[in-house]
Amino acid sequence: MPERGYPIILEASILSADFAQLGEDARRAEVGGADVIQVDVMDGVFVPVITFGPGVVKALRQWVNLPLDVHLMIVEPERHLEAFAAAGADRLIVHQEACLHLHRVLQMIHELGVEAGITINPATPLAVLEDVLDLTDLVQIMTVNPGWGGQTLIESQLDKIHRLRTLIERRGLRIPIAVDGGVDRTTAPRLVEAGASVLISGSSLYNDRATVAENVTLLRESCHDVTWRG
Ligand code: DX5
Q1: What spacing in Å lies between the alpha carbon of 127 and ligand 1's midpoint?
Q2: What is the pTM of this model?
Q3: Of 25, 43, 137, 180, which residue is the catalytic one?
Q4: Domain-embedded: residue 106
């Protein structure tokens, strides 16, 4: 199966946005050329921090026309899938580590009519994905330990990304790989060369909220002409 490229997709994570102006900040990313907004949902149990619920997704739906990608850093995500889908989520991304019955959770997401993504933490091996790739619309590799923005990329995940892309290509599947955590204009080209095509970035876009549009452009330009090294 010849390798078929994926378009580079930029997702603005609102974790580093101004929580008092999430609509405006999401729109800044949209105007600046981001392709997707990622909403980092945290329950204070799966990760120590608490952030947003379905109400924020519903509110953001009124501010941007971009797809809303909901990253569920919560335990028992199956309890909340319907509420986030009803709020306007276009894709629900669950942690494999939080799902007792991952195959069933992915089926539930598809039954709600939205895309299903799986994400795994840095310590979690790719093997947990092997028997559910056929139900997966996107795999998100955590390149930091979840819970906070502004962390440094964990270098060991580059090899994991390459192994995952190789597995997907060998199976003849078409599943984009997203990377989340420490993604900026320096790390992005290396992540794309390793096999990622969906770049999720928060602090590199929002640390200076006055230049969100420029930051989006700089991040996209950092990957110009960069492809998977195979
Ligand atoms: C971690 C979050 C972050 C966020 C992006 O739980 O998922 O990775 O989306 O953070 P930055 O881009 O600031 O590293």
Answers
A1: 24
A2: 0.97
A3: 180
A4: yes
